[in-house]
Amino acid sequence: QVQLVESGGGLVQAGGSLRLSCVASTRTFSSYAMGWFRQAPGKEREFVVAISWSGGSTRYADSVKGRFTISRDNAKNTVYLQMNSLKPEDTAVYYCAAAHVSDSGWDYWGQGTQVTVSS
């Protein structure tokens, strides 16, 4: 069982920045691809970005390309999401997720952190 704990959410004005962090409780963090998802009120959870176990490959949703950057530090069991040029439509609960390299789906989820962007 892997526990994921997100932090860094908050209230920011449009155009501002936030950095989310997600710490994983596992000794094999480098065996997991990591991702960020978000869910806005009244909407389904949607994919935001993912990073491979090595950090060498990333994939972004079109809506955040050029504004968000994912990175990971395997020595710290942590994945980061740098969010710049935030828009009110980025308001959502952001979830961290982990997928073992041997699996095709997301195996573990964090509890989420709220991001609110005011206009």
Give the SSE map.
Blueprint: E1 4-7, E2 10-13, E3 18-24, E4 32-39, E5 46-51, E6 58-60, E7 68-73, E8 78-83, E9 92-100, E10 108-109, E11 113-118
Parallel strand pairs: 2-11
Antiparallel strand pairs: 1-3, 3-8, 4-5, 4-9, 5-6, 7-8, 9-10, 9-11
Can you offer a commentary on this structure?
The protein is mainly beta and 119 residues long. The protein is 0% helix and 51% strand. It has no helices and eleven strands. Strands 2, 4, 5, 6, 9, 10 and 11 form a seven-stranded mixed beta sheet that branches. Strand 9 and strand 10 form a beta hairpin. The protein is globular, with a radius of gyration of 13 Å.
SSE order: EEEEEEEEEEE
**What is the rounded distance between the termini?**
40 Å
Radius of gyration: 13 Å
According to DSSP, the number of beta strands is 11
Low-confidence stretches: none
Please outline the major beta sheet. Answer: 7 strands, mixed
Helix content: under 10%
Beta-strand share of residues: over 45%
Count up the helices: 0
Instruction: State the oligomer.
Output: single chain
